[in-house]
Amino acid sequence: MSDKPTIVLVHGFWGGAAHWANVIVELNRRGYDKIRAVENPLTSLADDAERTRKMVKQVDGPVVLVGHSYGGAVITEAGDLPNVTALVYIAAFAPDAGESPGRISQEKPPAAFDNIAPDSDGYLWIKPEKFRESFAQDLSEDDALVMAVTQKAPLASTFGDDVTAPAWRNKPCWYQVSTQDRMIHPDNERRMAQRMNPRKTVELDASHASLASQPKAVVDLIEDAVNGTTG
């Protein structure tokens, strides 16, 4: 197992590192013993990218960087470190220079856009009673309830933070589209994937929470990135 790269998982909005639970278990079953999951503050793209860079820099050896949702913007901003060998996007934003997740969403609003609401402190939440239908309609009611109650709200301003130098222009990339995604429009995912010219794109009949509902297929794509860049 020691010859396998470290897999660094980067979560998005409305969740934390534990959103990767099913992927972590599946990676471990397949012999990956070097797995890390970033816990981003969701306070700004700069803060989240720096948190991710610090974790990657602690790794001695190659890293496959995997981002879900807004985590795709984070790995796009932070993925230029020399030991990052591949970028894997899971139903994720992949902004170009000068683009933000908010701008991409406004161009083609997702189905659940109106279920996002700000609070008086400047944080954005998915309305708890709308969480399952918005984020995780292919999970059980119990699993979706836990996600709804434990959701981690981003500062609203983070939606508008632009990527500066997209790492996908210089790193091998893989992309997973969720065809039933209600948080990022599936056509936006397809467009972002197409322009980065990934080594492989897969489409899953899944919600935005494909990392939880289809972990085996997600890990299949991660393994394809491992095999395609580190042998």
TrEMBL record:
<dbReference type="InterPro" id="IPR052897">
    <property type="entry name" value="Sec-Metab_Biosynth_Hydrolase"/>
</dbReference>
<protein>
    <submittedName>
        <fullName>Hydrolase</fullName>
    </submittedName>
</protein>
<feature type="domain" description="AB hydrolase-1">
    <location>
        <begin position="7"/>
        <end position="220"/>
    </location>
</feature>
<keyword id="KW-0378">Hydrolase</keyword>
<dbReference type="GO" id="GO:0016787">
    <property type="term" value="F:hydrolase activity"/>
</dbReference>
<dbReference type="InterPro" id="IPR000073">
    <property type="entry name" value="AB_hydrolase_1"/>
</dbReference>
<dbReference type="Pfam" id="PF12697">
    <property type="entry name" value="Abhydrolase_6"/>
</dbReference>
<dbReference type="InterPro" id="IPR029058">
    <property type="entry name" value="AB_hydrolase_fold"/>
</dbReference>
